Amino acid sequence: MFGSINSTMILAILPEILILVLAAFVLLFDAIWSEDRSRNLGWLTAGGLLLTMVLSLAIASPRGESALVWGGMLRYDWLGMVFKMLFIFGAGITALFAMEVENLGKRGEFYLLLLVATLGMSLMASSADLIMLYLAVETTSIPMYVLAGFFKRDEKSTEAGFKYLLFGAMASALMLYGFSLLFGFSGVTSLADLAAVIGSGGLNTAVMLTSMLLVLVGFSFKISVVPFHFWAPDVYEGAPTPIAGFLSTASKAAGFAVLVRVFLVAFPTISTQWTMLIAVIATISMTLGNAIALAQKNIKRMLAYSSIAHAGYILVGLVAFSDLGLTSVVFYLIAYLFTNLAAFGVIVAVWRTTRSDEIDDYDALSRRAPTLAIAMLVAFLSLAGMPPFGGFMAKVLVFAAAVEAGWIWLAFVGVLNSIVGLYYYLVVLKHVYLHRSESEDIPIPVTRPYRLALTVLSVGIILLGAFFGPWFNWTSMAAKALF
Amino acid sequence: MQFPILSVIVFTPLITGLLLLLIPGERKTEIRVTALAAAAFALVLSIWLYFSYDLAVGGYQFVEKYTWLPQLGISYYVGVDGLNAPLVLLTGIVMFTGVLISWGIDDRPREFFAFLFILATGVFGVFVALDMFMLFFFYEIAVFPMYLLIAIWGWKVTREYAAMKLTLYLFIGSVVALVGGLAMYFSSGLGTFDMVALEGAGFSSNFQIFWFPFVFLGFAVLGGIWPFHNWSPDGHVAAPTAVSMFHAGVLMKLGAFAALRVGIMLLPEGATFWMPYVILLTIVNVVYGAYIAMVQTDLKYVIGFSSVSHMGLVAMGFATLNHDGMVGAGVQMFSHGIMTALFFAAVGMMYDRAHTRQIHELGGFFKKMPIVGIAFIIGGMVSMGMPGFSGFIAEFPIFMGVWQFRPWVAIISGISIVITASYIIRIIGSVFFGKMPEHLEHGDDHHEPIGDVTALDKVALVILAGILVLIGVFPSVMVPLVESGVDRILLLLGGV
């Protein structure tokens, strides 16, 4: 049905093919390796994903014009490519974080599910058709439900998995309903055709608004913004920490990838309506997320609320509805992925020794594990938006886009919110650097996977924040691919 | 290509700070020597820079420009003129003396000096920045290490509170100013953050009048302007001595300087419109600050509030928008920086030995530490604006400028000099010449008898006091330089 298969089509899905091959290897070695060696599956996954990144970038980087491939199901462009690299990187780091966690790191199916979810995300980032989009979303979601509830004997983890499933299924259903309305009234499923129908005035505004709202529900769930954020704190708290990190970064980025594609490609004609709506959502998400994060005692819950706030900041870039705005969204997602993964990495490493995620148990971390403390300092200051870390540049770009587009009040809401954020990030750092604790003489070991992953992330955060030229080029190429 | 002296000055502290972190923490002497060597190096370079600025040529000199993010017109662009050359020198001096008097810090000196030096890089970066983005970037870098320095090494009673308050205040100010900066960037249509280019952007009056308060006040928070000064005395008091010196001596100038550079120079019409109101705020600063300083019983709070008062004079001088007022304010930034550093150093030395800063519990220190006494008295003379000291060179023109604006403002503000004299003389009288309490004189179960300060402390004090006298006796080493900088601003304001 696709006609003859040409090289562009293969290049377009090269990352996915490689992930699939890697998944097969993981299955194979899971069967071959004995129990005591199966921790190496983590190295295999991370290494394989690194190789996937390198090969994809070297061979399959889109050159020239974007193209629709596989019968219009996928779009081969820089936006998709940048997001794919981001997901693959995030999955690799997650594998490193997970490999020394008991009941997780030695389980072949964990890595398999992680890879399948990554595969789904990659497809999400490049899908150009409503059907493909829905399939990709489900390919991502189902493994994630399982991963969130991976600790079968842990009540909180099973609760997290179940809650995520229920919320996810609900949001998915509404989104699907929205898709079906779009298809029913326009008769097409491809985003490009849909844009053409809408552009020629083929859909009336009421239909468009309804379907837009329904689709937005599905995406809001994925990126965890108000009012579809309720799952995030419970799921982050209960899910295995590496998975919580993955959920809050790669999964969120995937949600943004489809949000950007659908809204900018399919709904540009009603942009005045949805930009206002999203501006309101962004305002509430930032404010509510930050305000509730202030009161948290558990660091994973705190980061969950902070991630709701960050989703709000990112939406500010989308509201700007411009080249710079889209660039800032992508840049922010990259910076946020590095930063938040680093934060969750530290949490995993600390949890392995202390068995606690309470902020009070981070007292004197700087004495127990100086390197972890430094990684935490870098990550949290970047979250707070301090230079020379990636979060600073990301926030500047987002707010710049808002100012450029005339959303001055939104920019002010954003910057004032970032002060609230600074407060609770500093409170954690205060525990880490200032407080003393009875167990401060018990060191927290940092094993090789953590050291490697946290070094890569910290260096990345600083590179993003101080030498932003190449990254900015990448992201602006991605942004331009859409227009 | 010429020697990139500004970049070397800016990055020497940062690189040293990172190198310090690589030295094992227990080798404290090596850490201190490295820190001192780096500070001396930066000081020598900044002195050389100061004296090789060519007045006959004028304008920005030692300019370096590298692209940073060309797509958005962000560049690493530095240069000095008559206004910031003294401030670079000031930073060099305070950094050097700060390291000298911090020799005795025994709790994690490695991290202390590393954070202090990262802070110094931020400060140098802001002073020499000619690119607005770069200015914000370094501004934030200067703010954060302050939090750790105060919270970890500060005075146990208030440090956590003061550090958090300070950080949040300054961050609020800077992000509000940042939005204004972004508005300027987009509204100019030039697609560049280059401030020299933005000076000629020709923003509309409405735009300038709308955005000026955000930008000016956003930065002026760090300059300690009323009613946003509240963080400053708490911060001064809680900070360890070297950090207080940096904080009051240099950091507050950062705010005033950025308010001038970004606020007044880029939005001159907005400045003209708002200045009468700003002057009203600064009157409160000057008089109320001095009054509060007078009723304090804690020595460090006295100095903290006196900083609020003196920084109010800086803002007032700039707000006159005339030649005399601005030249005075320019010199005052330098003079006050050195003077406050001296005060905090002296108070820190006394506190380290007497373990109290309550004025009524101290007395007779002149006998025990004469150098500290002499230095403090010189600082006091400067603070009161006595002729022959740098304070006079700075404050007299400010009052002249204010008089040209409205005589009654000058008269009211003049009251502050009287109040200042009263508390300075009271402190000198009771702390240095009163009777020393018995337990300090001979020691008891809890106290060692008070001894003299170390040689390093004396060197630091002599340097600081010497500079104050030097400027007072030979104003020509600084005034013409500042005038050349001010003339450029006056041109932007429409030429006088």
Give the helices and strands of chain B as they follow along the chain: HHEEHHHHHHHHHHHHHHHHHH
Shape verdict of chain A: globular
Tell me the radius of gyration of chain A.
21 Å
Instruction: Summarize the main sheet of chain B.
Output: 2 strands, antiparallel
Major sheet description of chain A: 2 strands, antiparallel
- With strands numbered from the N-terminus, the spatial order across the biggest sheet of chain B is 1-2
Structural class of chain B: mainly alpha
Global structural class of chain A:
mainly alpha
Radius of gyration of chain B: 21 Å
The poorly predicted ranges of chain A are none
Which regions of chain B contain 5 or more consecutive residues with pLDDT less than 50?
none
How far is the first residue's CA from the last residue's CA of chain A? Answer: 29 Å
Helix content of chain B: over 70%
Count of alpha/pi helices of chain A: 20
Order of helices and strands of chain A: HHHEEHHHHHHHHHHHHHHHHH
Compact summary:
The complex is a heterodimer of chains A (483) and B (496). By secondary structure, chain A is mainly α.
Written account of the structure:
The complex is a heterodimer of chains A (483) and B (496). With 483 residues, chain A is an all-alpha fold. Chain A has helices at residues 7-12, 14-32, 40-59, 78-98, 108-126, 130-148, 155-186, 191-199, 205-223, 231-238, 241-266, 271-293, 299-320, 323-354, 365-368, 370-384, 390-404, 408-433, 448-466, 469-482, and strands at 67-69, 74-76. In chain A, helix 12 (271-293) runs parallel beside helix 18. The radius of gyration of chain A is 21 Å and the shape is globular. The mean pLDDT of chain A is 88. Chain B is built from 20 helices and two strands. Chain B has helices at residues 5-22, 28-52, 84-101, 109-128, 132-153, 159-188, 195-198, 205-220, 231-238, 241-264, 268-295, 299-320, 323-354, 365-368, 370-384, 390-405, 407-433, 438-442, 455-473, 479-492; strands spanning 61-69, 74-80. In chain B, strands 1-2 form a two-stranded antiparallel sheet. The longest helix of chain B has 32 residues, at 323-354. The interface between A and B is medium-sized, with 28 and 30 residues.
